[in-house]
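FAQ

Q: What does a record look like?
A: Structure on top, sequence underneath. For example:
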């Protein structure tokens, strides 16, 4: 394999990670490896093995396995530029966890970690609007969403409250 430039678009639930990653990938003419999409097959297997667990429980229990699946997809790809998206909330708070995950990704030359920032009230509105089973616990909270701490690893912030075209331009500007 050859060195890969990795662009990670991360942030909390409802911040628009997949939407932005798809737009950036389209503008740059590259593929996007989405955390949920890449791990869909393994989650279907785990659901079949554990039918008593809800989707949110499964997602939490098998989170590290899902990140390993994403790392494997990055490691096995044959592209020189990879755009990936996922929450990375714990990774963003732990340099060791982040470094270990990057090690799983293989020969990564440059990493651009883009953190999407969005007001919790707006995120909650998006989460309610998408009505996904995985968000059931979040939607049931009376007090709303908490502010998510800023990453402690190297990152660039993009305002997810801007339109998708402005966000996309900002990402491309910061990585070029």
């Amino acid at each position: 394999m050859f060195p890969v430039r990795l662009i990670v678009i991360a942030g909390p639930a409802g911040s628009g990670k997949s939407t932005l990653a798809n737009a950036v990938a389209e503008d740059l003419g590259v593929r996007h490896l989405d955390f949920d999409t890449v791990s869909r097959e393994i989650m279907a297997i785990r659901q079949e093995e554990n039918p008593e667990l809800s989707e949110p429980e499964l997602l939490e229990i098998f989170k590290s396995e899902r990140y390993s699946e994403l790392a494997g997809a990055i490691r096995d790809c044959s592209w020189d530029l990879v755009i990936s998206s996922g929450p990375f909330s714990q990774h963003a708070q732990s340099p060791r966890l982040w470094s270990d995950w990057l090690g799983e990704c293989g020969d990564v030359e440059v990493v651009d970690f883009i953190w999407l920032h969005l007001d919790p009230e707006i995120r909650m509105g998006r989460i309610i609007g998408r009505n996904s089973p995985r968000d059931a616990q979040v939607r049931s909270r009376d007090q709303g969403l908490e502010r998510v701490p800023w990453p402690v690893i190297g990152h660039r912030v993009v305002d997810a409250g801007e339109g998708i075209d402005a966000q996309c331009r900002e990402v491309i500007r910061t990585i070029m």
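Q: Is there anything notable about this one?
A: The longest strand covers residues 108-117.
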